[in-house]
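Appendix B. Extra example for self-study. Work through it before the problem class; the solution is given directly after the inputs so you can check yourself.
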Amino acid sequence: MKDHAVVGRPGPRVDAASQVTGRTIFAGDLNLPRMLAGGMLQSSQAHARVVGIDVSAAEALPGVHAVLTGADLPVAYGIFPVSQDEHALAVDKVRYVGEPVVAVAAVDGETVERALSLINVEYEPLDVEITIDEALVAGTRIHGDGDGDNVHRRAALEFGDVESGFESAHLIREDVYFFGGNNHGALEQHAAVAAAGHDGRVTLWSSTQVPHYLHRTLEKVLEMPASRIRVIAAPVGGGFGGKTDPFSHEIVAAKLAMVTGRPVKIVLSREQVFYAHRGRHPTLMWVKTGFDPDGRITAMHFRSFLDGGAYGSYGAASLLYTGVLQTATYKIPNYKFEGVRVFTNKPPCGPKRGHGTPQPRFALECHLDEAAADLGLDPVAIRRRNLVVPDSITVNYLRITSCGIEECLDKAVAASDFSTKHGALPDGKGIGLAVGSYLSGAGLPIYWNDMPQSEVEIKVDRGGGVTVFSMAADVGQGSTSVLATIVAEVLGLEPADLTMVTADTDLTPVDLGSYSSRVTFMAGNAAKEAAESIMGRVAAAVADELELPVDGVIAGGGRVGADDDDEKSLPWADAIQAAIVRGGPLVGSGSYRAPDLAGPYRGSGVGISPAYSYSVAVVQVDCDRETGHVGVEKVWLAHDIGRALNPLLVEGQIEGSVYMALGEALLEEQGFRDALHRGPSLLDYKMPTFLEMPPVESILVETNDPEGPFGAKEVGQGPLLPVIPALANAVHDALGVRIAEVPITPDKVVAALRDVARGGGGHFGPQSVPDFDFGRLTRVDPPADFQP
Amino acid sequence: MSEGILSLTVNGDTTQLVLSSSRTLLEVLREDLALTGTKHGCELGECGACTVLIDGLAVLSCVTLAARVEGTEVTTVEGLASGSVLHPLQDAFAELGAAQCGYCTPGMLMAAKALLDAEADPSRSDVEQALAGNLCRCTGYLKILDAVDLAAERLR
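Solution. Structure tokens for the complete assembly:
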């Protein structure tokens, strides 16, 4: 393999200069001539029929240009084809406090607020379902008519034979865990600006992670051809999954612009962001595992109960994600998953960093530590005995290729001196460990189609300028910089030499969006192929011009020519002109579609990925027995990145993942008092500040994935997963208490310590899960080449 | 709401504006002066994204009435560079990856500038204390700390 000039080199983002000068234009920063302000009246009711809406006073208010209700946007939508259950403005019913009901466009924000206050909505209240327990039994249906349970989706899958696995077990352990819901808390409040001309076209700028899916939603709800709708994802001021659904304010802004003929801007308030939500599902989990005397897993049965809030969102996938990646880290020869997602009268849950997998990862990794203690093993040994290996297949048909889980474990344990410290630190101090794995992109698109999941185009102008077109949305993770790195490497240029045009449905070829950690792998492969198609033509032209064998032509340092003789090379601009002379316009394209990896069962589309990243976290804590405060002293995080295209960005993703995980583990909870959010503000919703953030030692493990671009895999989500259970395990090491519930707040720690003082086992958390019929079990034979 | 003519000096430029007395400095900067580099994350003084300097001190512009800053020197992120030359804090933030999505960055830079103007050689704990009111959801703060350290070193 030749040395890489750009790949592997730490470097700044390509947009760093505009970011540090305040020149990055986020959606909310756009100001267009004659622009109106838009806003939405939200439901005061958790569950009610909308009997009447009187907007006459609002319409009559000077400065008001348009008022919309659900009747103006009657078409239902939802991110998943199977969950078309939302309306931009409530139709007939409201299902959570905060649901948008009426929209107004007016000359300024103050007039919008005054108009909203003049609107009278008459509600007929319905019974409210708030908890998972309430939703599982017959009550007023949140979707559909009359009474019934509020089950959204259920799943029941068995791979192999868990009963025989339990029969052969030396130890069987059962535990129950709860993971509280939380919000993404991106610092940028969602914003959308729409403009419509009299030519029947509408343009929407939005802080969205998924311009392509938003484009499709607008086509459906506005009942317009997609070719007349342009969606531009502005640089996103933090996403984390929170800007991955089509949102009502986006649709409403477009409709208001069409109705008024003037641009309209809607910026959600922070409170509205908490109610728009789509964050982590509160999840109750039960796990039962059999082990042989050496700690090898013989069978596992996992059940999850997800509180989905009022709408489907990504829930059909979220449910399956709570059951699928247990096998991506550990060899589980017999595995059964049962799960249910319910509707409740609260803001809808959806995908947040790790999408449905942090909750079971928390449960599984705490459960393994408990089992290790039962077996007299240490936390490293029990994991080491069960690790998956490279180039294998799991019992539920996940194809594992590159896999650095063992190297991650070795390095994290060595760097942290875990084995010396575990069980040996002074009272109040503790150390914990956990592992995790995540997808490098969901294997399938959200809507069924056979087209590529990522396309990239490149155009080269006569001066040598290279413009790269991709719909990938930079949400802060640095996707634009990653694509620039890949193209620059192939063309022998610098990332800063390139012009990047991204996330614009009129200009850029489709990329499905910035979710499921898919962009580096999928758009990266497409970008590499596009650049190689350009390079193929340039190399042929230079070979012809300089009378060189074409396979000896390379690009580097802004020149193209013989790899062993600088005299026999051309500057980039001359080289590309030679190609244009010989072949006309110098344009190239590339695309990527994941291989078909689905297993032979319904539901197998969730969890498959062309590659898995692996992470191991070690967390060291210092706890206060009096107050229950958990201070984090240090985190070590080893991550199998495949190949670090830009180590600076990789470290940034690891540090950010650790941060977000610690927030979830210790502080953050999207809590409700009945149907009202407990504190929809950044003062009440506690996020870690500089003062809470510990040092992080990032350890990069490179396994050079055979299918990743230059060997790369994901890093945006995986490193979050093991941190939360590693912290819980550290608290156990420090104080001897098991907090089986996230967030691990001081009151829970104190309650567990009091339990110990009373002679109890120091356990805090739920004791049982509801008795529930998960429906017909699908039994799946393990893959023929499965190696237990 | 009363209106009045206000004279505001921002990044060295003085502008006369007719403003309602209820307008916040954040609103006036972003809407009347088109200085959209200053961000908002809460509009309640809870996140630090709107931090600007008033006579060199870091202030939350979302909870500051524009009428209260007449006669002061307001500095926003747009006033941090000298012409085409970036401030060392800007260089360091760019070089070390202290900005990911970049949304908190303007406020973070201004809070850091107020600190470094007052204390040329702050300890890490000084920096953490000074910036604790500025939230960032992307970076975990570590690269921001490194960038402030590097800028302080270059400024000394």
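Self-check: The CA atoms of residues 98 and 144 of chain B lie 5 Å apart. If your reasoning did not lead you there, revisit section 3.
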